[in-house]
Amino acid sequence: MRWSFTPSPGRLLPLLLTTALLIRTSSQADTDTDTDNSNSGSGTIWATPHEQYSSSAGVLGCKIDTNRVAYWPGSVDCNNICVTVSYAGRSVTLLRVDTSQGAHDISYDAWNYLYTGSSAADQPATGGAVAMTYAYVDPSECAAAGLLHAGAGDKLAFSAPTGTNLLVSCLGAQPDSWVARNYALYNIVDAVCTWGYDEECTLDWPAANQAACPHTLGAMESLAVADPVYNIQYGTGRTVLASTGQVVEGGARSSGSSSGSGSGSGGGGGGGGGGIGIKGLNGAISGTYHQLWSLMGCWVALQCVLVGFL
C-alpha cells in the first residue's frame, strides 16, 4: 500500500489556524505574566517572600529597615530606589537595593503583611507568588516611612570598603541623582554589619574614589553594632541574628521598625549573600506554563502531519 502525503485542505486549514493561535497565545503570555518591564513607572508583579537581607548595591542592613526591601530584576538605580507595593487595600513602601534573577521578591515581613494584614513575626504565613501592584515613588517617601536610619533618617548608608560601585557610578554619571545627593559611608565591611567599625567615612569625590575613615578602611574587626541585622524565618516567624542564625528569644526586632501596619511593621530582616526567600518561583510557574503551551502546539502540528495520511 502506498501512503499519500497530500493533505486535505479542508482538514488542514483549521489545524494550522489552531497552531498559529496557540503560538500567539504563548507569546502573549510571556508579556502578560509580569508588567514590570523597567525600573520606573507602575504595574503588576507576582510578589514572592524573601527571608534574608542582601544588597548588591552595598547598602548596610544595620542602617535601614531590612523588613522593607525589594529584590527585583534589573540593576539598582540612582533615582528609582523607592517603590510602593499594594494588595487587598494594604500598602508598604520598599527600598529597592538588591537584584534578583527574575523573581520579584520582597522582604518576608512585607509580603506577609500585604498578604495577611499581620507581621510575619506575629502571624507567619506561607505561600508563593501573589499578584500585587507597584508604583515607583520619590525616595523621600522611603525616608518619611522610616526606612533610612543613617544621618537624620534621610541618608542611604553604603559600605565604604566594599559597597561603593553604585555610589561611584551615580556620582560620576548622575551627580544630581538622589543617591549622589543623599548617601553616607561607613567603615563596615559586610551588608549584615558583622565586620569593621561603625564609623562614618568621607569621600573626596572626584579627587578620590576611596573613602577615608578614622580606622583602617576595611579592617576585619569583629563588630557589634547597636542595631544588629535580623531575619524573620520563613514559615516560623522566629527572629534570628543574620550573622549567626541564632534565634533571638522574645522576638527582638530591628531598630526603627514598628509593630504597626504599613512601612514599618514587623521584625528585623537581614542576612548577607543571596536571599533564601522563594526566589525564582514566579519564573518557574511561568516557564512551566509556557512549556505546556509549546507541547500543545507540537501536538497540533503532529495532527497536521497525520492528516496527510488520511
TrEMBL record:
The keyword Protein biosynthesis does not apply. Residues 250-270 are annotated as: Disordered. Residues 259-270 have a biased composition (Gly residues). Keywords: Signal. Residues 1-29 form the signal peptide. The keyword Signal applies. This is Cerato-platanin. It comes from Diatrype stigma.
